[in-house]
Amino acid sequence: MSYDPSDDGARMSFQGRMSYGDYLHLDKILTAQHPLSQAHDEMLFIVQHQTSELWMKLALHELNAARAAIASGNLQPAFKMLTRVARIMEQLNSAWDVLRTMTPSEYTEFRESLGESSGFQSWQYRMIEFVAGNRNIEMLRPHEHREALVASLRAEIARPSLYDVVLSHLRACGFDIPPRERLDRPHLPDPAARAAWASIYRDPVRWWELYELAEKLVDFEDYFRRWRFNHVTTVERIIGFKRGSGGTSGVNYLRRMLDVVLFADLWELRTEL
Ligand code: HEM
């Protein structure tokens, strides 16, 4: 006799009931892979991008909630959420190992099918950058043809970034940091903020929560940098120095993006400690 899991209480009939697939809308998710070529590896390429977008969706959910928690002075839940975001980035970093199994010959088989589409047009990636504080309004342009998307990106750069709310919290704790004049610009290094962080790092016992907050931000950025580095290395391994499907110089563009710094004050203060 084969083992019957219903003896252990497993429900085996879902007529008229919500099942696993219904709850997760798997019919939608698992029918959303549409390779445009006959190449075996195009499925890997599609799934890798789609899963990355799902993880980015969760990262945004956590970053937005962390920002709201910090804005209301509630740091402990924000720590947990920021740790989760760093873990998500770590997860995305491991995912490159799967994509790296694809050789240049295999990618070339379906490269034409992509046309001009590229991760450069990932609006969730831009949203993550915008939430963190790296706000380049030029990056809105690839989304102008999608009214609702561009509206949500514009709305984001009109509100205080994650780092803006962190600085507001420092002000509330008594540090003298002038507010930023333009929210829709990237954060530039701010000597007043760096001086505040330096006092915090010089006396962690007194400022433990702020010190922990700073380290959570650095952790997030650290994993984010690793993602960019893994991306550019994988890209060089697969397409060398060919131009990107999105039209940029490819690896040279991505190398330039390695210089992006989200929380410059927190990195710079390390030199003076
Ligand atoms: C064979 C694999 C891949 C190749 C050859 C590749 C190539 C490139 C290139 C050349 C760019 C620069 C823009 C352009 O001209 O297209 C780019 C940007 C980008 N890619 Fe990829 N990519 C790959 C996989 C992925 C995956 C799996 C993701 C995950 C979502 C991703 C996300 C991005 C993002 C977000 C950007 C914009 C980066 C920025 O503007 O800072 N890429 N990619």
UniProtKB/TrEMBL annotation:
Q: Which Gene3D superfamilies match?
A: 1.20.58.480
Q: Name one GO biological process term.
A: L-tryptophan catabolic process to kynurenine
Taxonomy, superkingdom: Bacteria
Which positions bind heme? Answer: H231
Keywords from the named record: Dioxygenase, Heme, Iron, Metal-binding, Oxidoreductase, Tryptophan catabolism
| Naturally occurring in which organism (per UniProt) | Paracoccus onubensis
Query: What pathway is this protein said to act in by its record?
Result: Amino-acid degradation; L-tryptophan degradation via kynurenine pathway; L-kynurenine from L-tryptophan: step 1/2
E.C. no: 1.13.11.11
**What cofactor does this protein call for?**
heme
Function, as annotated, reads:
Heme-dependent dioxygenase that catalyzes the oxidative cleavage of the L-tryptophan (L-Trp) pyrrole ring and converts L-tryptophan to N-formyl-L-kynurenine. Catalyzes the oxidative cleavage of the indole moiety.
Q: What is the protein named?
A: Tryptophan 2,3-dioxygenase
Name the gene: kynA
